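Input sequence (416 aa), recorded before submission:
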Amino acid sequence: MALHSLRGFRDILPPDSARFAAIEAAAREVFALYGYQELRIPTIELKELFVKSTGETTDIVEKEMYAFTDGGGREVAVRPEGTPGVVRAYIEQNINQSGRNAKFFYIGNMFRAERPQAGRFREFEQIGAEHIGNASPLADAESITMLVRLLERAGLTDCSVDLNSLGCGECRKNYRQTLLAYLRGCSERLCEPCRGRIERNPLRALDCKIDGPWLAGSAPKLTLCPDCAEHFARVQELLKISGVPHNVNPGLVRGLDYYTRTVFEVRSSALGSQDAVCGGGRYDDLVKSMGGPAAPAIGWALGVDRLAMLLKDKPAPDCSTRAFVVAAGKEAASKAYALLSALRAAGISADFSNFDLSLRSQMRSADKSGAFYALILGEDEMRDGTVAVKPLKEAGEQTLVPFDSVPSTLKQLLKV
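Predicted structure, token format:
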């Protein structure tokens, strides 16, 4: 039986792999501009970490987490998201005592046992950013602006932001009872998962894909306390200063239990009706609830698979080999190998197939390689100390170039 990949897992081949790399490069450039540094977190953590942080009533913990007992009898899980690992590292490594801004980003694969669909896989790559220890609305506005700029740098246009505030614990205390009473009154309309968890976490119904849309128009709305209202107004003011289009959406509720105050989603018209690209929010109580110091924080996560799918109609980054070296005979093969080394040392990407094959066969490989030029070492070239430079992508005459001048000549032709 032929081996195959598991459902929801996939190989990422060129040119898609080049799109992923370009998105990652764009992210690193933007993070550097905003003072974020990379934090690499483990792929496997204690299961308790995700239950305690992400929330027992979330779909991630209830249905989607890959969890198992390891050889040492520990209950562990493959990471379904990045924030809990970053917060655990912040606490365990005493980062709050460093005196530096705790602004981190991560790039890595996450795992969720959810139903595969367009742009969603059971193994997927996330880029995320976390700013821990700053309660100011300036941190909210900076985090959101940075995300929008990253998407723009990656090539996604027409980005806008949906904003809402979930308030603080005091805001939600009375609202929880009001919402719970409302949901009890219309429980027959709720889907089965929502009916099963409204007593434990009624706010989760507002984020449900089935019930959320109709509840957004009919459920009672949260009233913010003066401090939360002032914070939310300031975030909006700062986003205007940054030139980031945004819309207040009272029905926006992110699906993770740890969010407080500002939550947001970035949308793009390129997606049509399902226009949410990514999102995040503030989680002021999470660090303390996990045993760390009181440290307000805000962060977001971006699905690279989904973004790469959105950018599929845009030209993929050109990773073509610039030169393909062809040689005839054993003596020419040694000279051709020296030429490959010289080209690469000069920063010119170069490739070859097999110098033992015929010139015709090697030229077929050169044509299929996507290279801009074939560099040919035949008997005549070996005798005269030259290399034949043949254009492969554009019409043009084959020219002879002295062997030692090939790297500099190719740089002029390639304009590099």
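Checked by second reader. The mean pLDDT is 89.
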